[in-house]
Model the fold of this input.
Amino acid sequence: MTYDLYIGDRTFSSWSLRGWLMLEKFGLPYRTHMIGLYSGTMADDLAPLAPARLVPTLKLPDGTVVGESIAVAETLAEQNPDAGLWPRDAAARATARWLCAEMASCFTALRGACPMQLQHVNTGFEVSEAVRTDLDRIETLWSHATKFKTDGPWLFGAYSLADVFYAPVCARIVGYDLPMSDAARTYCMTTVTDPAFKAWRAEGQKTVYDPFPYDMGLPTTEWPSA
Ligand SMILES: N[C@@H](CCC(=O)N[C@@H](CS)C(=O)NCC(=O)O)C(=O)O
Done:
């Protein structure tokens, strides 16, 4: 039984990162397939998976194709009930679902102003009022999650789909050096220094982009290694 995961460029594709973490972090068997997100071959590459049109797309072991990250997450959780994708506690699980759904449908200012890039840290990024509002809301949601927290450094203690959905948010906070509370920054650093995240980033760094797609014209420093 193996899942087939279709992803885009690791350095930039925030949704692909989520799709991959859903499998990798919970020890589920999978193969990855690259889709030409930045090379212009995306439509052709995805044609055999129609009507899928975005990454990530997942093909289940029985051949069923699933698009949309929330649908992929729920399908994996349903097919692997003992893998712990959602928190065990019912209240924590309901809250985790809320956080994931809000992530998938909101934070458009942050997502628009700070495209995910795992290459370097932009310094001196000017935070607009709209981005600040998104960051404040993220702080509020992360802080709410701590009410249900068990032991562990993740949003609900143990790693869950909530951490999967917020991993690219953490990457944006780190990659644009965005001002956050100490607790939020610590959580972001836990995320980007996690071995799975580091492995994803390292694989992405093997591809060199010239010109770099998201050059903000800002000074940059090295991506944190630990
Ligand atoms: N709502 C989708 C979003 C997926 C998405 O936007 N993926 C981007 C890559 S990060 C993509 O495929 N973009 C290609 C395009 O928009 O044509 C999900 O939850 O999976």
Remarks:
- The first helix runs from residue 14 to 24.
- The beta strands are 3-7, 30-34, 57-59, 65-67, 120-122, 220-222.
